[in-house]
Amino acid sequence: MSQLLGNAFSAELDWKPKTSTFRTGARYLDGLTAGTAVDVWGAEVGEYQGVTADEIFVVLEGKAEVTFHRTGETIVIGPGDVVRLFAGDTNTWRTIETIRKVSFYVPPVQSGS
């Protein structure tokens, strides 16, 4: 089962990150699932592993290779690609070109919260 849902659009953007990974101003949405948010996330060239939240995102710019540990699937994503992540899954991101995406997600519950 592919987690790459399709390609929505292509866009030219003039934007540069200041840190290796970054998430900007989450906007929490009333009337939806508690804790649901929309924000922008990005990463510079490099590789890292992480645990996902329930999320759907659209790549705005850049290119990355994402390997999903649960399924063993590896996809290459770029501008306009729409991807679904499942809470608790682990994956490895290999950012090929600085990437930025807009995400609709439910943040994971922090222990002790």
TrEMBL record:
Residues 40-102 form the (S)-ureidoglycine aminohydrolase cupin domain. It comes from Pseudonocardia halophobica. It comes from the Bacteria. SUPFAM superfamilies: RmlC-like cupins. Transmembrane segments: none annotated. This is (S)-ureidoglycine aminohydrolase cupin domain-containing protein. It holds the Pfam family Cupin_3.
